[in-house]
Amino acid sequence: MDEEIASAVNRALFQQQAPAHVRIMNARRNARGTITAIPHQNTTAEMALLYGDIIIKAAKSVDKRIIDVGGNELWERLKIRTIPLVRYMGKGTEGLQKMREEIQAENKGVTIPAQVRWLLNPCTIKEREQRGDIKASSVVFMMKGKKVAQRLVSKGVTAGGVQ
Hints:
The protein is 40% helix and 20% strand. The chain is α+β, with helices and mostly antiparallel strands. It has two domains: 61 residues, no CATH class; 81 residues, no CATH class. The strands form two sheets. It has a three-stranded antiparallel sheet.
């Protein structure tokens, strides 16, 4: 079916009179179901994405499960220090899932595709908190978009109304 997707996309691009070099090749589906298509050797992903509407419509004509088309993005790794344990660790806090949702909701353009993680082992953090050694710890998370990550680093991250 992956070859059919590439064929449908290339035919649609041709019919819509996209430049001859704007084509895809080697469409493949990975274990998670994501389809990766390599643009023709004289095309960048950015050039192909100018025709995103045509590409998605053609791909959906072959496989209705396809929902979006996008360029390959690198994920940036960010670390936040002094996260209050009383707010994000323990029963009834909703934990780091709540932090993830707050960061995405309160910081424009932030997409966190994976869970936020404590930098240290959560059991170690809990033991140190119970001894009274710490009241805060650090987290790390991956996010999409280098420019957005740079903005967060320079201006700060807001979570739970606190920056």
